[in-house]
Design goal:
Blueprint lengths: L1 E4 L18 E6 L9 E5 L7 E3 L20 E8 L5 E2 L1 H5 L8 E5 L17 E2 L1 H9 L4 E4 L13 H8 L3 E4 L9 E9 L7 E10 L1
Organism: Caldicellulosiruptor morganii
Pfam families: Cyclase
Protein name: Cyclase family protein
Length: 208
């Protein structure tokens, strides 16, 4: 068994989605300075690094991250290689074997930009017809390897709204650079923040 950590490291230097608060991590106590213990203060967006979007992110009265069904956040996942795609659409997905996978993660060229300190505006995103296709297939979790699944500068956010209105959980910021296409087990557990629209998550793939 091999465990593959596909979670981004949270740091002060990491890139944030434009408009989101930047990460600030600072020590308020430090044993190196004579304090009894080391304690840090964290300031960050609920959509920092590898994170989960709950329905409440875009849907009024939608499920908050603390109310998500944990059974949907672990199990089998299909990682789909979309390296050559500029946008993931229904036509592309119809040529892929999704089967009965309840979770699908997309590996794109985005992964190579995840560690850049500059935001990559031309990231690969999911089209609306692809989102509708995944819902038709019964997928419960959709993940991608950048900070948003929606194209940059979207006005109405139809992909988010379509998925989240059907309680399909979105996982963004996956580090899939060294992951091959195939089937894995996965665990994607967000911080349990009461009433929140999303939260950073530790996500791992398990290869038997």
């Amino acid at each position: 068994m091999r465990i593959i950590d596909v979670t981004l490291e949270i740091s002060n230097e990491m890139v944030s989605f434009p408009g989101d608060p930047r990460v600030e991590i600072a020590k308020v106590l430090d044993i190196k300075k004579g304090d009894i213990a080391t304690v840090s203060k964290l300031m960050l967006s609920s959509h920092t690094a590898t994170h989960i979007d709950a329905p409440a992110h875009f849907i009024k009265d939608g499920l908050t991250v603390d109310r998500l069904l944990l059974e949907n956040l672990m199990g089998k996942v299909k990682v789909i290689d979309a390296i050559d795609e500029d946008r993931i659409n229904r036509e592309f997905l119809s040529k892929k074997e999704i089967g009965d996978a309840k979770a699908v993660f997309f590996k794109t060229r985005n992964s190579q930009y995840l560690h850049s300190k500059s935001f990559y505006h031309s990231y690969v995103s999911l089209s609306l017809d692809a989102a509708e296709y995944l819902i038709e297939k019964g997928v419960k979790v959709v993940g991608i390897d950048y900070l948003s699944i929606e194209e940059y500068a979207s006005v109405d956010y139809p992909v988010h709204k379509t998925l989240l209105s059907r309680e399909v959980v979105i996982v963004e910021g996956l580090n899939l650079l060294n992951v091959s296409e195939g089937e894995y087990s996965f665990v994607a557990l967000p911080l349990k923040i009461k009433g929140c629209d999303g939260a950073p998550a530790r996500v791992v793939l398990i290869e038997e």
